[in-house]
Design brief:
Shape: elongated
Largest sheet: none
Structural class: mainly alpha
Number of helices: 4
Distance between the termini: 43 Å
Radius of gyration: 21 Å
Helix content: over 70%
Oligomer: single chain
Order of helices and strands: HHHH
């Protein structure tokens, strides 16, 4: 039961982050190229899209399904189904004129720019987090070394 609750918590957190990000991106794009409103149907579409993307995130990044690949391999592998799912949603729900190659080109460009920004953001986040953990480990090791030598703080 504990593992199940942990899984639900992780997926809920990832889903909330994904959905919030998707709504922010959509509203930003719609502010410049749309009418500045968001329909309830679009919110539901983004919620379903983010649900699928969250499952993909779990598969590729939780370490529970794919255990061996490096982070960069996981990112490359994740990009393909994420793009296919986003493209399928765009096509199925007519997010832009399907016959307009320029609109598809812009969609592809936006997807890969956002994907690259997210990758860069996670890379920076994990580097900062790694430095914090390294510093904490160093402090613990120093404290252990002082205790082992009989010196007190």
């Amino acid at each position: 039961m504990g593992k199940f609750l942990k899984l639900v918590g992780e997926i809920k957190t990832w889903g909330c982050l994904s959905f919030t990000g998707a709504l922010c991106i959509y509203t930003l794009i719609d502010t410049f190229w749309g009418d500045g409103t968001i329909a309830c149907a679009t919110v539901y579409q983004l919620l379903a899209l983010c649900g699928i993307i969250t499952v993909l995130q779990y598969i590729f990044f939780s370490g529970q399904v794919l255990k061996k690949p490096s982070y960069y391999v996981r990112m490359a592998l994740f990009c393909v189904p994420a793009f296919v799912v986003c493209g399928a949603f765009a096509w199925a729900f007519g997010w832009f004129p399907m016959e307009n190659l320029g609109a598809w080109g812009l969609f592809v460009l936006i997807f890969f720019v956002i994907f690259a920004v997210f990758c860069l953001g996670f890379e920076i986040y994990f580097r900062i987090l790694g430095k914090k953990y390294d510093a904490a480990l160093g402090r613990i090791q120093q404290a252990g070394a002082r205790m082992g030598s009989g010196k007190a703080d």
